[in-house]
Amino acid sequence: MRLNGFLNVKTQKSFKRKFLNLTQPNYSIMKKLLLFFVFTLGTLSYTIAQTGPQITFESDTIDYGTVENGSDGQRVFTFTNTGDADLLITDAKSSCGCTIPKKPEGPVAPGEKGEIAVKYDTNRQGPFRKTITLTTNVEASPMVALKIKGTVLPKS
Question: Which residue ranges make up each domain of the chain?
Answer without folding.
Answer: 9-49, 55-152
